[in-house]
Amino acid sequence: MINGERRIPRPLRWGMVGGGRTGQVGYKHRTGALRDGTYRLVAGAFDLDAARGRDFGVNLGVEASRCYATYQELIAGEAGREDGVEVVSVATPNFTHYEITRALLEAGFHVICEKPLFFTVAECDEIAALAASKNLIVGVTYGFTGHPMVHQMAAMVARGMLGEIRLVDMAYTHGFNAGDDTGAPEAVVWRTNPRTAGPTFVLGDIGTHLYYLSEVVLPHLKVEKLLCDRKAFIPSRAPLEDHATVLMHYDNGARARLWVSSVDAGNMGSQRYRFTGSKASVAWSDSHPDQIVYQVQGEPERILHHGMPYLEEESLAADRMGALHTEGLGDSWANIYLWIAQAIAAADAGDRAFLETHHYPGIHAGTEGVRWLENCVRSADSGAAWVDFE
To answer: What global pTM score does this model have?
Structure first.
């Protein structure tokens, strides 16, 4: 159980690019990073409006002199300091991820970046090589996979409790983009512009969460081919999609269905997963994150609750609140940030053995998410055709 005890020798000196007062995700990053005292926020370029960003940073407790106008100024100001930042989170629109991450790595900082990581696999491969050459970690904030019951499902699959996996069913839908974008805030509009969002909207924004979580639960399975059908129900968003369905074939013969939508009117937002094997099934939703439904063929349905001693070690190791109390999204983000911090500490100490077995969403996870998006776009743009997964 995670109880706030120190897991690395000392707090990491941490900075942020983006995540300011008007952003949607900055507080999630800070909720995760600052939970266990594993990080200490010492600098940031929080906002395109330098004065507003400085005022915001000071209200977070950052020295005014270390609240920078741009990420370039942050790099210049922090790189020469003995107490300068060691790791920087990038919480900015998609089109900036690559250039900011590359600049931070070249300056010698570890990076934690929002998803989707970059626009192309080629960019991911370049950044992976750069990070490796400098012994630096790139973490990706797939924040939902820190939930203990996600790792319970993964452990059950690994131990053969479901049998051979046959069916995977995943959905992440909400209705917050069911209307047109007239008068919408910039936080919405940039996500539907190919220049700033990249080649996808909901596939990259929420679909990559589904795909990565399925990789956590099913690491032994690989996608062989997929079919993606996507549509912009709000015409002004075309060629980007606000709704998509993806069918996938795995290398063991299993079949998967994945549905993402931001025009599911009335739905306040939830992720739903069901993994079915030859013996049994498990299902989990982030709307009920404390439990999974375990159904063995021919036996009564069971509800497994987080924090209980009958769970697998992998689940209990990620638990924070104990069985009587609710585990929330902030706890999941805190786990992700903790696991990335442990990877950074190991990299700095040269502990390659630890890194080889340590679980965290790193550059490989980000790359595979981008690879999945490239294949989805290729399929959709070919008329929702089946394509070999490349």
So the answer is: 0.96
Same fold, 12-144+338-362 and 148-321+368-388: no
Q: CB–CB of 159/318 below 8 Å?
A: no
What does the chain come to in residues? 390
Token pair in block for residue 134: 């400098």
Give the integer Cα–Cα distance in Å for 232 and 244: 9
Distances (CA, A) of 334 to 14, 28, 55, 354: 15, 9, 26, 20
239 preceded by a cis bond (ω within 30 of 0): yes
Q: Calculate the CA dihedral of residues 363, 200, 194, 98 and round it to 10 degrees.
A: 0
In the chain, where the domains are located = 12-144+338-362, 148-321+368-388
- 207: burial class by Cβ within 10 Å (0-12, 13-18, 19+)? buried
Tell the CATH topology of 148-321+368-388. Dihydrodipicolinate Reductase; domain 2 (3.30.360)
Q: What tens digit of pLDDT does each residue of 119-147 get?
A: 999 999 999 999 999 999 999 999 999 99
Check if CATH label 1.10.555.10 holds for domain 12-144+338-362: no
| Cα(37)–Cα(199) distance, integer angstroms | 37
169: helix, coil or strand? strand
Angle at 53 between CA 60 and CA 13, to 5 degrees: 50
The 10s digit of each residue's pLDDT in 208-237 is 999 999 999 999 999 999 999 999 999 999
Span 313-344, pLDDT tens digits: 999 999 999 999 999 999 999 999 999 999 99
Q: How many CB atoms lie within 10 A of CB 105?
A: 20
In whole angstroms, how large is the CA radius of gyration of the chain?
A: 21
Q: What is the largest CA-CA distance in the chain?
A: 65
Query: At residue 79, what are phi and psi to the nearest 5 degrees?
Result: -65, -30
**Residue with the two structure tokens 């590359």:** 102
